[in-house]
Write a structure and sequence with these properties.
The structure holds two protein chains of two kinds. Chain A contains 13 helices and two strands. The radius of gyration of chain A is 30 Å and the shape is globular. Chain A folds into two domains: about 40-85, no CATH class; about 100-295, MetI-like fold (Orthogonal Bundle), CATH 1.10.3720.10. Chain A is mostly helical. Chain A has a two-stranded antiparallel sheet. Chain A has helices spanning about 25-30, 40-70, 90, 100-130, 135-140, 150-165, 170-190, 195-205, 210-240, 245-250, 255-265, 270-290, 290-295; strands at about 70-75, 85. In chain A, α6 (about 150-165) runs parallel beside α10 (about 245-250) and α11 (about 255-265) runs antiparallel to α12. Chain B is α/β, with parallel strands linked by helices. Chain B is built from nine helices and ten strands. Chain B has helices spanning about 45-50, 75, 95-105, 110-120, 135-150, 165-185, 195-200, 220-225, 230-245; strands at about 5-15, 15-30, 30-35, 60-65, 65, 80, 155-160, 190, 205-210, 210-215. In chain B, the strands form two sheets. A six-stranded mixed β-sheet of chain B has the order 6-7-8-3-9-10, with helices on both faces. Classes of the chains: A mainly alpha, B alpha/beta. The interface of A and B includes residues 199, 203, 205, 213 and 221 of A. Chain A: Belongs to the binding-protein-dependent transport system permease family. Chain A: It is a multi-pass membrane protein. Chain A: This is ABC transporter permease subunit.
Chain lengths: ~300, ~240
């Protein structure tokens, strides 16, 4: 007769295992304490620390280098470190005729205006696109500015900028940057205008909202996470732009990015380093402010 | 009873496509018109026209004898409830329910009192400070219901509001709807594709098919009409019963 133990899934007891009185290893008899990492966990923990250190080194080193370039004097190859240090380049920021702070102000003004106008415009245009009968065509058209490199786009729109008497002005650069940032924000905001958003709006209207109240009380709060992303992204897009700004400004609108390239061209390492550090300041602030949104868990 | 809503010869066309054809019915204060219809029969368009979210191509819409067509949605006092509760995710349960009162600039003390009372009535008081995502499906639908009720709507327009709920929660919500409707004398137009739900919540019945509305004088006529498929369902259950016996 066939034993019950022979049935599939149930195996007979092993006569060699855990005999009464035989020494039992702790790991066999007790579940491993949750606080103690296993060999594999220790391995993955070590890898994580190594990776974190490598990433910090990779991203941190350029900043250290920039700092050293900003304060180092007569630092030449093959010297590993600057032979002397001076705060002259940093102090020059405070000089009345310093162009760097003016450049910082210009860049902040331009990028801030581009971010606000492109995000607001993108919000409205994305809605118009969603309600249009030719949504797909408008979406395809929004990608057109990205078919060309920014410099080429600037060359193509330059004649129009000249005819508008905006060549070499902040307004001209603004128009050029908006041509890139506005479609970007529109495409980003496109996903917000779904059928459910329309339902939210309709519901708000039947609950007593005027169109303006529905926008302020319902749509804008619902869109805020995407609006914030659009604001940050378009700001960075305008902030770091060099090619388009350089062509449209014809050397008259010296933004911080343009100045960095100028100083590099002049082999003025300390000022180029100081300008680069200034250039990094707003993105770092933006990343810190938006840390919670960027690191949001799904 | 006084006649609240009169709809006569209402039609709606989208381009060449006719979505509603000569729809006529009337509703009295406190009545619940259950409209049975399959997907794509035009029921959502009918509700949107009543709410002021769509304009009819032709026909008459009267509320207490006054033409409704020029009245914007926010002034109609007719709340449209969707299948999804659509709670505002940036507001707590309390603020979701208070939404309609805040829009109307009602005094803060009055808002607090009204919202507290309604949340207690809907058995939601303990969830007042929770965010919508912390609630179950049934609780979310109750909040949505409370948000509509607090503005004392002249007409509730319900577009398969319990369609996404499980069977037990759906039955509970139907009972809650019945209790609150009777208590507050709410007039409603309840659209559903479920004949059992229509029979549970309705005081009057209609069937909408390909844009044409058939109103029934009694529940008997509604049950007998072959298009509602209620008789065939009854026959199915009787057959099961006989097999079990």
């Amino acid at each position: 007769m066939r034993s019950d133990f022979a049935s599939p899934g149930i195996s007979p007891p092993d006569p060699l295992s855990k005999k009464e009185g035989a020494p039992v290893r702790e790991s066999d008899s007790e579940p491993r304490k949750s606080g103690a990492p296993s060999f594999l966990e220790r391995g993955s923990g070590g890898r994580a620390v190594f990776l974190a250190a490598a990433l910090i080194l990779l991203f941190g080193l350029p900043f250290v280098l920039l700092g050293l370039l900003a304060v180092g004097e007569n630092w030449r190859f093959p010297q590993a470190m600057p032979p002397a240090y001076s705060l002259d380049a940093v102090r020059s920021l405070l000089a009345a005729d310093n162009d760097l702070l003016l450049g910082l102000g210009r860049s902040l003004l331009l990028a801030g205006t581009v971010a606000v106008v492109a995000t607001a415009g993108g919000f409205a245009l994305a809605r118009a696109m969603a309600q249009s009968r030719s949504t797909a065509r408008w979406e395809a058209a929004s990608y057109l500015p990205y078919a060309l490199p920014p410099v080429l786009l600037a060359v193509l729109i330059q004649p129009f900028i000249i005819r508008l008497h905006l060549s070499g002005s902040v307004g001209g650069v603004l128009v050029g940057l908006l041509l890139v940032a506005l479609p970007f924000a529109t495409l980003l905001m496109r996903s917000f205008w779904s059928a459910q958003t329309t339902e939210y709006e309709h519901l708000a209207r039947t609950l007593g909202c005027t169109p303006g109240q529905a926008l302020r009380q319902v749509l804008l709060p619902l869109a805020w996470p995407l609006l914030r992303t659009a604001l940050v992204q378009t700001f960075l897009l305008a902030w770091f732009d060099f090619g388009l700004t350089n062509v449209l400004s014809v050397g008259k609108v010296r933004t911080l990015t343009v100045q960095v390239f100028t100083y590099i061209g002049e082999a003025n390492a300390p000022l180029a380093a100081v300008a680069s550090l200034l250039l990094l300041l707003p993105p770092v602030v933006l990343l810190l402010v938006n840390k919670s949104a960027l690191l949001r868990k799904p | 009873m006084s006649e609240l809503l009169t709809v006569a010869n209402l039609s709606k066309q989208f381009g060449e496509q006719s979505v509603l054809r000569d729809v006529s019915f009337s509703l009295e204060q406190g009545e619940v018109l259950a409209v049975l219809g399959r997907s794509g029969c035009g029921k959502t368009t009918l509700l949107k026209i009543l709410a002021g979210l769509e304009m009819p191509t032709a026909g008459t819409l009267l509320l207490h004898g006054q033409d409704l067509r020029p009245v914007p949605p926010n002034e109609r006092q007719m709340v449209y409830l969707y299948q999804e509760p659509l709670l505002f995710p940036h507001l707590t349960v309390f603020e979701n329910v208070a939404f309609g009162l805040r829009i109307r600039n009602v005094a803060k003390a009055e808002i607090n009192q009204q919202v507290q009372e309604l949340l207690a009535e809907l058995d939601l008081w303990e969830h007042a400070q929770k965010a919508p995502h912390q609630l179950s499906g049934g609780q979310r639908q109750r909040v949505s219901f409370g948000r509509a009720l607090i503005i004392r709507p002249r007409l509730l327009l319900l577009d398969e509001p319990f369609g996404n709920l499980d069977a037990q929660t759906r039955a509970d919500m139907q009972q809650l709807f019945l209790r609150v409707s009777r208590q507050h004398q709410i007039t409603s137009l309840f659209v559903t594709h479920d004949s059992r739900e229509a029979l549970t919540v309705g005081t009057r019945f209609a069937y909408l098919d390909q844009g044409q509305l058939t109103s029934f004088a009694s529940v008997g006529e509604f049950v007998q009409d072959a298009r509602t498929a209620i008789r065939s369902e009854l026959a199915f259950w009787e057959n099961i019963q006989q097999k079990l016996e």
